[in-house]
Amino acid sequence: MFSKTFRISRMILFASFVLSSAAWATTCSNGSLSGTYGFLHAGVDRRGAPAVAVTQLTFDPAEGTYTGEDLENIGGVITRSSLTATYAVASNCTVTAQVTLVSGGASENVNVSFVVTPTGFLFLFQNPGATSSGFGAKQGSSTCTNAGVEGRFGFETTGTLLAGAAVTGPVAFIGELKFKVNPSGDGEISGHIAGSEDGTILTFADEPITGSYRVDANCRGTATFTPKGQPEMHFSFVVVDCGKELLAIQTDTDTAVSGALVKRD
After folding, report:
1. The total number of structural domains that make up the chain
2. Are 180 and 246 members of one domain?
3. What does the DSSP 8-state code read for residue 163?
């Protein structure tokens, strides 16, 4: 009996290995990145300032190009850029791209790399002097309205509080937030967050929140909420995964913070 069970177990293990190997053996092409994605990335710029960004990209595999809009918070300075790029996906699912960023009439050429994943891509910024990495997720068939993202979300952010904040240093928050549309069609936020601000602990009981949100037809949006006894917090986000996830950065000038909201229902 033991021998038979052992043989069956080996067969299951072997089958699992074959299936796993087949999954990793998938051949990629430019068509592996197609349509619109949101992505979140964070790191430091050439001057060592903390930088976070949320970006929306649209890939055209037939041309090997993509375009997009980038919203970046570099050391508390908010910058919007448009971008165009060429990209090439290798059969092993690695990607190289050359990007031109345009902001305020000035342009900059940068190099980036991706790795294609089943749900999007992993990202690395590859210009000397700066370090940034992140991930992207496909937008999918999202309904990009206030009502389209109603529901309960788990919330997580990490980053740095900068000069001008009540405290400075590393910061992290988690929370449970409810997005709901009121009878006037406006988006309202309620819930609780907990956090650590340079080691000072904030509990869920200490931090009930109220706020508002807005989602535009292009699947970009903004949210503002106020923890009890704390300053307002402002975020910009991109809707991805058919409305099941929001990728966000904080846009207050005394922060460099990024994170995600994941829908629970």
Report:
1. 2
2. yes
3. B
Contacts of 203 (CB under 8 A, 6+ apart): 194
8 A C-beta contact, residue 234 and residue 227: no
- Output the pTM of the full model: 0.88
Strand locations in the chain (E):
35-44, 50-60, 65-74, 77-89, 94-103, 106-117, 120-125, 131-138, 151-161, 169-181, 187-197, 200-202, 208-215, 220-227, 233-240, 245-250, 255-263
Domain membership of residue 74 as a residue range: 30-138
**How do the pLDDT tens digits run along the chain, 265 residues long?**
434 433 444 444 444 433 344 444 479 999 999 999 999 999 999 999 999 999 999 999 999 999 999 999 999 999 999 999 999 999 999 999 999 999 988 999 999 999 999 999 999 998 888 999 999 999 999 899 999 999 999 999 999 999 999 889 999 999 999 999 999 999 999 999 999 999 999 898 877 999 999 999 999 999 999 988 788 999 999 999 999 999 999 999 999 999 999 999 7
Q: Are residues 171 and 250 in the same domain?
A: yes
